[in-house]
Amino acid sequence: MAELAGGFIMSKNSVFVYSDAFQTYKFHDRHPFNQLRVKLTYDLLQTLGALHDSQIVAPRLATDEELALVHDTDYIEAVKKAGRGQLPEEVALNYGLGTEDTPIFPNMHEASALLVGGTLTAVDYVLSGKAEHALSLGGGLHHGFRGKASGFCIYNDSSVAIKYMQEKYGVRVLYVDTDAHHGDGVQWTFYDDPNVCTFSIHETGRYLFPGTGNVNERGQGKGYGYSFNIPVDAFTEDESWLAAYTEALIEIADFFRPDVILTQNGVDAHYYDPLTHLCTTMRIYREIPKIAHQIAHQYCNGRWIAVGGGGYDIWRVVPRAWALLWLEMTEQSDISGRLPEEWVARWQPHAPVSLPLEWDDPENLYSPIPRKAEITEKNAQTVMKALHPIRSNKQRLNL
């Protein structure tokens, strides 16, 4: 451990995968997916003195062979052609390219392969023993499918990373997804694989893309019982969300006992997020990484890889939430009060909203939710259904 300016303690056991080139993954200026949020987070941490140059590592491009661990080669070639303006519209649409969600943009293959390569860089640092923890906020594109783009995601970096971990390192992986949208692409990739356990807690698909992630999606074949979903009700607040997440993750981790944990850290469950209907605050983004960190050390010898994900209020939510993730990862999480004035002053002229001045949200962030008791009870019942197979199996073993 080493002390930084401002009195922060820097862990040498964590790396931060970053490049300004992450921002080349850009659909257009009006698109809600905006990788400026990664730079905002990076700058916040550097201004704070909580991210040292020695902790930053550059991402690499994923190779075609690595992408093909998950994605069809025809699809990879289609993405390349689309980025060069050589893919006919009718063919592009068959691959989910050129839609409102995933418009075609120049060099989209290279930009997408860099995000995947960032996650693979994080994997290699952790599983080769160079670091205990690694964070690549450019990743977390969990909706990409084998042969189709979906939900702002062209290549699915988490799915590729898990396949890569299995083939190169032979590990059992616990994938934890706290994005407000169901982690469908990762779930379906490993739906029949007993060596990958997927857990997604998200807003119910009754009102939100992609419409999947029901509690009865448990896997198939040899993978049955290794897929867990907790679809929480719209307007869920901090207490109920955290109760569901904490109870479920602790029991799932004890059931699966992974070699490594990969967490997808979408931050679009926040009340401010324009694309979802949940009512959480910065409080959950303090707690989410704490529990993941504990699980990593309890079962995985500290091996924890974390990626980004959704998050569409890039000014008020994402930088604070993702900074708290890194601060937990590096044992600097005891922070509160005001954000660095220098950071606020630097970015406020560019922001269309007033930037927050403090790490935590005010108590009166939103008006009281009238159905709070009903929502809380419904979510508790969902957790019981999701964990029923684990609990019933424990009861049988005890008998």
UniProtKB/TrEMBL annotation:
Keywords: Acetoin catabolism. Pfam families: Hist_deacetyl. Residues 31-326 form the Histone deacetylase domain. Gene3D superfamilies: Histone deacetylase domain (3.40.800.20). One of its GO terms (biological process) is epigenetic regulation of gene expression. It comes from the Bacteria. Pathway: Ketone degradation; acetoin degradation. One of its GO terms (molecular function) is histone deacetylase activity. Belongs to the histone deacetylase family. PANTHER family: HISTONE DEACETYLASE HDAC1, HISTONE DEACETYLASE HDAC1-RELATED. This is Acetoin utilization protein AcuC. The lineage of its organism: Bacteria, Bacillati, Bacillota, Bacilli, Bacillales.
